[in-house]
């Protein structure tokens, strides 16, 4: 099935919308939360459990998969879907963000970015073309262009240079996609510009001019106040075509996501639900709560009596607290199931609320 | 359902037999392998996955559960079955073996054993009565008496004293069970005696005289040669009543189990399949193999094409090797599923072969 974005309903109260994103590996209901499968697995989860919690798409990290096991091996396995036994859509990032946050001794030029692997210290060079070749080998449904993400705070000169370089790389990426034939997957351009209104505006305008089937908003949720993130997003979604999907990268907490949906964002990913689970925290509408707390010692009720996940339907807080304290893997696993299902149910409710307006 | 052991078929070639063990929580096909759930979970496995791989009974460790979360909490939760959400039979050991192998500064007297917790250094005292009270609080279907296990090699005097003390404790345990009314669960006596033929013989004879609904053979697979283990087992099963189940504790490797079945052993438990999995090894009929080997880098075939487990049906060696190398929990989990299923299928085949004789 070719790529298509279909808007089912626009909110009357905000820029929120409910849609369906058609991809080669299936249809995604938006707004959507995408669990992160950094190293070809969503941490602790098997693919059938991802199915069960209602995941419709997962994210793979190009930076990690490029270093290990490498795109050639995954291609030989028949692509990332087959390799990890996940038959629904996959979105891959470009590796840019990880290069900026994980890699050592990175050197950015107009040609691309050189970095030292966090695994073995070997030097690598990523270019706009190279990251597309890697993602094509992975066979992801939705690919990202190489971009340059800046930290927060960042002075304007630096933010401007990074944004302009990202736009140039967007153009080169689009060209590369046009030259390669028979590709089922699509490429998103990425809006940058730090927390500068005019830079965000210019970035969005220039990307729209290049014309992508979908747009990502990068470089947010990197330390700036929520209000500032929302302001940037608002400016950007006013410019991006309404009939294209908007992916707010790496966001985030429930309150970030709920606010961003009202500003027209459709797609989200974040390691928060899975990472918190491995640290013993479960998600509730009132925020995160740690299972290790003494008050749960003899609490034989589930984490959330309303939740339909395997964890909440079968295990008590006292039990999970015990196995977490005993460092049993099942504890991290059950909490991950709950936290991901919590996000899935939250998105489902958001979609239903908009449809019911 | 009350406890009952039913022999369906005796082998014509050996002392092997196929049976059904009826317990309050269901029927177990013997010979049976019991996955070990030390801390109220079989490491990495959820109860529904244990069901799926065909586990009919799991083992809980009294030593660990007594220290954390404690028998009172588990009793308040409604017993171990409810606490860990496992509705099939549970066998608990007495904690004796762990005291001898894990605990520090243990002191054995005729009254019981004093030891220092490996968790917090607090002193504990276990008596034959106390371990039954703990196991009753856990609500296990099959309980073990407190016994004294000796190391290998062990001089005869020490082995004799430990055996005689274990027999005295067996008598006290039987008395305690007779005095407590309305108990659904049953108690097994434990044969000791090191690797001394006459001590093993005396131990078995005296336990038979006390009369238990089932008998365990302890203190084997502690370092002695396999031939010696088999010799001891052979002596013991000649003495134990044929119509009672024989549980060879903590054994073991596939070849140990297959040999022991021919000598009349019905029940087995061992951490080998789960522990090996966490170290990257999978089980085959040719022995254990480590998934990290370079030859599996591009091996896109399953661990065992004949195996019906979730791991073998859905993932390649190359994938598992990759996620194991990336320290992903799913790797240990998938290998555990395979290794336990391997043992389950092995036992199933043994039962079928005897029935088909």
UniProtKB/TrEMBL annotation, chains A, B:
Pfam families: TGT. The lineage of its organism: Bacteria, Bacillati, Saganbacteria. GO terms for biological process: tRNA queuosine(34) biosynthetic process. Catalyzes the base-exchange of a guanine (G) residue with the queuine precursor 7-aminomethyl-7-deazaguanine (PreQ1) at position 34 (anticodon wobble position) in tRNAs with GU(N) anticodons (tRNA-Asp, -Asn, -His and -Tyr). Catalysis occurs through a double-displacement mechanism. The nucleophile active site attacks the C1' of nucleotide 34 to detach the guanine base from the RNA, forming a covalent enzyme-RNA intermediate. The proton acceptor active site deprotonates the incoming PreQ1, allowing a nucleophilic attack on the C1' of the ribose to form the product. This is Queuine tRNA-ribosyltransferase. Residues 14-356 form the tRNA-guanine(15) transglycosylase-like domain. Pathway: tRNA modification; tRNA-queuosine biosynthesis. It comes from the Bacteria. The keyword Amino-acid biosynthesis does not apply. The active site is at residues 93, 269. InterPro entries: ArchSynthase1/Queuine_TRR, TGT, TGT-like_sf, tRNA_ribo_trans-like. Belongs to the queuine tRNA-ribosyltransferase family. Zn(2+) binds at residues 307, 309, 312, 338. GO terms for cellular component: cytosol. It catalyses: 7-aminomethyl-7-carbaguanine + guanosine(34) in tRNA = 7-aminomethyl-7-carbaguanosine(34) in tRNA + guanine. Residues 250-256, 274-278 are annotated as: RNA binding. Its EC number is 2.4.2.29. One of its GO terms (molecular function) is metal ion binding. PANTHER family: QUEUINE TRNA-RIBOSYLTRANSFERASE. Homodimer. Within each dimer, one monomer is responsible for RNA recognition and catalysis, while the other monomer binds to the replacement base PreQ1. It is an enzyme of class 2 (transferase). Keywords: Glycosyltransferase, Metal-binding, Queuosine biosynthesis, Transferase, tRNA processing, Zinc. Binds 1 zinc ion per subunit. The gene is tgt. Substrate binds at residues 93-97, 147, 192, 219. It comes from candidate division WOR-1 bacterium RIFOXYC2_FULL_41_25.
